[in-house]
Amino acid sequence: MHENRCQAETNLSMEPTFNMIKTELVEAYSNYKQLEGQYMKLKLEVGKSCIIDNKYILI
């Protein structure tokens, strides 16, 4: 019983750290999804281009 109480107190003391890390993870994932969208957009643009005389020309 005492061990369970100690574990519960430890878990509660770690909750602010967990919440901070969770928030950082959500923000990082959001940034990742935004950058992934930009990457896909650029990838499509490059896919629609060709190289003529060592210069990219959009088709």
Automatic annotation (TrEMBL):
<protein>
    <submittedName>
        <fullName>SJCHGC07022 protein</fullName>
    </submittedName>
</protein>
